[in-house]
Specification:
This protein is α+β, with helices and mostly antiparallel strands and 181 residues long. Strands 2-1-3-4 form a 4-stranded mixed β-sheet. Helix 1 crosses helix 6 and helix 2 runs antiparallel to helix 6. The termini are far apart.
Amino acid sequence: MSSGLIARRYAQALLNLAARDKKTDDVSQGLHDLCGILDAVPDLKLMLHSPEVAAERKSRLLAEMLNHAQPAPLVGQFARYLESKHRLPLLHEIRDCYGRMADDLMGRAKAQVTVAIDPAPAQRERLLRLCQKLSGGKQVSLSIQVDPGILGGSVVRIGSKVWDGSLRNDLDTIRSAIAQG
């Protein structure tokens, strides 16, 4: 079984528990905090992931990490469970899957919009409405990136879907059509 499938199963189980307790966002924050600690302290990450480190040592390290992070109780229990099943190396992947699933459950979407120049506030509002429409009416968190390389227009990414309305894409399409004759 692939690590992605395993991570999705763990994330779904955690989401079911969090939703039952109405702690979806608390659990999400706790997962982000734990992954942040692991990213900030690479030696800790190596020790927790290493098969050469004794289980008791890993348990103590994890307990210290949880004590420092003070995540929601469900996150602490979940992290200890992952450690007992030797699945702690999947924590980042589980966090990402959990985030996508939680957003979907809560009717939220993240939109990344790339534009050639920084949009004015009125344009940002129009982009937000467009993204809400494209996402099927979900509550959208909008992230705008400026890339003069697209020349004009915009590129919108919501989840795995991309709408490329950039001038660069239009020119590339025309160029390909001309080349094919």
